[in-house]
Design goal:
mainly alpha; 20 helices; single chain; 74% helix; 2 domains; globular; 2% strand; 430 residues
């Protein structure tokens, strides 16, 4: 009966989830975000080195009584060159990804979107340096403005390119690259003009577009993902989608991960300046405490099966999935056991995820675990990821161990229940 309910619910949810997951805009945001991750991880590693090793509170000062402030400059330059213009980078990568989906010239689409993004960005003037743009508008603070500007710029450019009257025709003898550039002059110009008009109107209104988007879109979304109730609802739905066999990351992460990146960036800035941390929920927090072994804390399920299951087939799958789970790859267990479409395991999967979130957040707020401010690769093994992402917090590593033990205890009775559920069927078959 339970299985029938799951099947019926899946039939209703799958089409909607597939439609959302196939959305071009969400796909472009996801691909744009992924494109900048190597830079974010690199900058985070240098932040880790500066704060843990080279800085006034680092190992070099403790061991030698002298912080390597000169060496810190290298990491500072790299971090500033990437994180301080993250919004600008995302405007480029997101628009490029969307242009590619539409079969447009990606270079023209991306550069046009960057200019449109800058059209919405307030410029300042100074007698000493002339005209300038504050990195406060170009960093993670302007991330959602970047996404919106990138999508609207590409959509408007695509719309205008569709009018033959606006395309300057070139003879076939003209090289393709030059022809595409000249063909797009009028659509590009009109696209930029539209964004320029929006900027003029917002200036007259006394509210820059960046500030409007931050106030009306970004801040409410940040409030949602930083509220306990909001997070419980979000990750209950997140894991339910996984339970239906839907890769929820492709649907929800394009919105969630940019928000988490804002918090992570603010935390990193707080560490560098000695200020207060911005928030608990970041992508490394998710990977370190909620997704050990992948979505649903699959490493805990593997351990629970190896410790408590007598079924040879379950134990075989668990052994196969152990190594991938050590690197946060959950698919061998999720689909091999399976967990998906399995009402017995969907329940503990949700409970283990929410328990990890609650224990991790409580430990962080109590000062036991450090705040996450280092973007570690998602394949970093559990416990080690918690240690690195918090800048070497032993309390964070111990918290991860506690969460793993709790998750094993959550899974264990359900694993035992699956054993008991199968045994009568096997006896009947005999």
């Amino acid at each position: 009966m339970k299985s029938g309910f799951i099947d019926n619910l899946s039939e209703k949810i799958m089409p909607l989830a597939a439609k959302i997951g196939g959305n071009r805009w969400l796909g472009a945001i996801r691909d744009g975000y992924i494109a900048v991750m190597p830079l974010v991880i690199t900058a985070s590693l240098f932040t880790l080195i500066n704060s843990v090793i080279l800085g006034p509170n680092g190992l070099t000062n403790m061991l030698f009584g002298n912080p390597f402030t000169e060496a810190q400059q290298l990491g500072g330059f790299i971090s500033s060159a990437s994180m301080s213009v993250l919004g600008l980078l995302l405007a480029f990568t997101t628009s490029k990804a969307l242009s590619k989906q539409y079969g447009l010239d990606t270079s023209i689409g991306a550069t046009t979107a960057v200019v449109c993004y800058l059209c919405l960005t307030p410029f300042g003037t100074s007698d000493e340096i002339g005209e300038y743009v504050s990195t406060g508008y170009l960093s993670s603070t302007g991330m959602f403005t970047a996404f919106i500007a990138a999508i609207l710029a590409v959509e408007l450019y695509r719309f205008l390119v569709g009018f033959d009257a606006l395309v300057i025709k070139m003879p076939p003898e003209v090289p393709g690259g030059i022809a595409r550039s000249i063909n797009s002059i009028i659509p590009v110009a009109l696209t930029v003009i539209v964004f320029g008009i929006v900027r003029v109107l917002s200036t007259f209104a006394g509210m820059p577009v960046n500030d409007l988007i931050t106030s009306w879109v970004q801040t409410p979304l940040l409030g949602l993902v930083n509220s306990p109730i909001g997070l419980v609802v979000i990750y209950f739905c997140y894991m339910m989608l996984w339970g239906f066999g839907i890769h929820s990351a492709s649907i929800m992460n394009p919105i969630l991960e940019p928000l988490f990146l804002i918090t992570l960036t603010a935390n990193a800035e707080a560490v560098a300046s000695g200020g207060a941390m911005a928030g608990i929920m970041t992508k490394p927090f998710l990977d370190s405490f909620m997704f050990m072994g992948g979505a649903g804390n699959m490493l805990a399920l593997v351990i629970a099966i190896l410790l408590g299951s007598r079924r040879a087939d379950y134990r075989t799958v668990a052994k196969v999935g152990l190594v991938p789970a050590m690197f946060n790859i959950s698919e061998p267990i999720m689909f091999g056991l399976p967990v998906v479409m399995n009402p017995v395991l969907i329940i503990p999967m949700i409970l283990a995820t929410l328990a990890g979130m609650g224990i991790g957040a409580l430990s962080t707020s109590l000062g036991i675990a450090g705040y996450t401010y280092i973007m570690t690769p998602w394949v970093t093994p559990p416990v080690l990821g918690a240690l690195l992402s918090t800048g070497g917090s032993v309390g964070a590593a111990l918290t991860a161990v506690v969460i793993l033990v709790v998750a094993v205890l959550i899974y264990m009775p359900f694993v035992k229940a699956m054993d008991r559920e199968v045994e009568p069927a096997e006896n009947e078959g005999e």
